[in-house]
Structures are given as structure tokens and as C-alpha cells.
């Protein structure tokens, strides 16, 4: 497999940030993920992963801090994109991310597509008790063939095995620089397949369920921006009880139905983001 750092642009300075913003200026749909130490208002944001079409960026929030969100290029800033009502943001479990963005950087996420909720309602009622992790959802959804799924799992576990688990779960390792190849892969895979997962789940959801998904997403966002929000409450792992009992289920996802490859080179046919950011700096 090609090296991820050849196809993912690390945004860690004014020039690379402005190049990223110029690319995102016309985006109508982006996939987002955040990584950080105790990700919430109690901790810190280390990396913001963004995919827009074939372009992927890892914004070094640990280094750039507030400038990551307030720097503008052509009148566009990350804060403006995240708060825009015209740009859809696909996120998998928005709660702690929204809490961190709001309280640490005064960024209020809007127009969120909550893929975790879409995936929940695409499952049969007897599988709706718990919210699933992104990795489990991707494995269950059938967007990856068996070989690609194995590669995905290997890439996702490498960072945890080499850094987090082996060194006692030290989340400060997310703040070590320069970015290691395993950290780049770990963060990039948060968003690489997220749009495809959303497409698969969205196709299975009826209009009635879409309304309910949007209502719950709004509740999640509103609650996460309150001081009363508890980032690590045990209750967060449970889906709404009424959804567990509702037998008006959408068709279950069937593994192997629609597959994708994981090679970073398949992210798009446009110029590599890393090359473009360098050329424009």
C-alpha cells in the first residue's frame, strides 16, 4: 500500500493552512474527525482530519491553536466552514468533538450529518441497544471487501499498539511532532471512508427515520454545548430506548454488498494535496 503521507497534507503553518482553505472554499460536503487528549472541554484538540472529495488534510490544532480556526484565505476560515449552514459536515459521534470545539475555540458546529445515528437506524431493532464505534460500523457496513477490511484494521491498530497501548495510554503522544506515519494513517482513516459509510446508510433510511435522525442530531449538538454535558458518562453508550423497541426497521446492511479499496491513491485523481500545498506556499 502507498504511504499515507504522500496523499495526506499535514497543515501545520500559515502557508499550508491557506492552501487548505483555498481548496475547501467551494466544498459543499466534508468529512470531519477530531483527535485529542481527553477530547472535550476538559482536554485538548490535537488533530482535525478533513476530507473533501479526493483531498485529505490533517490540521495540527496542537501547534496552530486558535489560528487553525481564525486564519482566512479568500474570506474563508475553518471556523466559517464548521459553522456554515450551507456546508454539510459528516461526523461519526459528534458529541465530544462539538464540546471541545465550542468551549475551547468558540466554534459552534452546524449542518452536521451524524453518521453514527444513520448507522444505528440502518440496523435491525435488536442491534440498536448500543452505539457502535466507527471501526465496527465500517466492518459491518460492507463498504470494504475482506482484504481491504484487514488492511483497515491493521492500520487502525498500529498506532494504538505502538504508541497508546504499549506506553500506557498516554494521550499526550497525539501531540508529539513530527507526525509519524502511523499517526497519519490513524487520523486519515477517521475520514477516508466516512462519506461512503454515510451513503450506504442513508440509502437504507426512510424519510420518517431521516426526520428522527436529524432531530436526534440537533439534540446531540445542543446538549454537547452545555456546561452540564458529561463527556464520559456511561449513559452515552446506550441508544434511545424507544429506537431499540421500534420494529419499523430499515433493511439491514449486508457485508460484501458494496466494497472499496483502501489505497490512498484511490482518494481521487486530482493533484496530491501535499504537492499542491507545497506548490502554493
Automatic annotation (TrEMBL):
MF annotations from Gene Ontology: nucleic acid binding
SUPFAM superfamilies: Ribonuclease H-like
Top-rank taxon, per record: Eukaryota
Ranges annotated as biased composition (Polar residues): 258-268
Region: Disordered, residue numbers: 254-281
InterPro entries: RNaseH-like_sf, RNaseH_sf
Protein name (record): Uncharacterized protein
Amino acid at each position: 500500500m502507498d504511504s499515507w503521507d504522500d496523499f495526506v497534507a499535514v497543515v501545520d503553518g500559515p502557508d499550508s493552512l491557506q492552501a487548505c482553505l483555498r481548496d475547501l472554499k467551494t466544498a459543499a460536503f466534508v468529512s470531519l474527525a477530531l483527535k485529542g487528549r481527553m477530547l472535550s472541554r476538559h482536554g485538548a484538540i490535537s488533530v482535525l482530519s478533513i476530507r473533501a472529495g479526493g483531498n485529505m488534510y490533517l490540521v495540527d490544532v496542537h501547534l496552530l491553536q486558535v489560528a487553525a480556526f481564525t486564519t482566512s484565505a479568500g474570506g474563508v476560515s475553518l471556523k466559517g466552514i464548521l459553522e456554515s449552514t450551507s456546508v454539510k459536515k459528516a461526523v461519526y459521534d459528534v458529541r465530544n468533538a462539538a464540546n471541545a470545539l465550542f468551549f475551547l475555540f468558540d466554534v459552534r458546529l452546524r449542518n452536521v450529518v451524524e453518521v453514527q445515528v444513520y448507522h444505528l437506524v440502518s440496523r435491525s431493532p435488536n442491534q440498536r441497544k448500543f452505539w457502535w464505534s466507527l471501526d465496527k460500523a465500517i466492518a459491518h457496513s460492507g463498504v470494504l471487501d475482506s482484504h481491504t477490511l484487514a488492511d483497515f484494521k491493521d492500520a487502525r491498530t498500529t498506532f494504538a499498539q505502538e504508541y497508546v497501548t504499549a506506553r500506557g495510554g498516554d494521550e499526550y503522544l497525539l501531540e508529539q511532532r513530527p507526525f509519524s506515519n502511523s499517526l497519519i494513517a490513524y487520523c486519515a482513516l477517521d475520514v477516508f471512508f466516512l462519506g461512503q459509510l454515510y451513503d450506504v446508510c442513508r440509502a437504507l433510511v426512510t424519510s420518517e427515520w431521516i426526520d428522527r435522525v436529524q432531530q436526534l442530531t440537533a439534540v446531540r449538538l445542543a446538549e454537547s454545548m452545555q456546561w452540564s454535558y458529561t463527556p464520559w458518562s456511561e449513559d452515552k453508550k446506550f441508544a434511545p430506548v424507544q429506537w431499540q423497541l421500534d420494529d419499523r426497521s430499515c433493511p439491514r446492511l449486508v457485508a460484501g454488498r458494496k466494497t472499496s479499496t483502501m489505497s490512498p491513491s484511490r482518494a481521487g485523481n486530482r493533484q496530491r494535496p501535499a504537492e499542491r500545498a507545497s506548490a502554493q506556499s
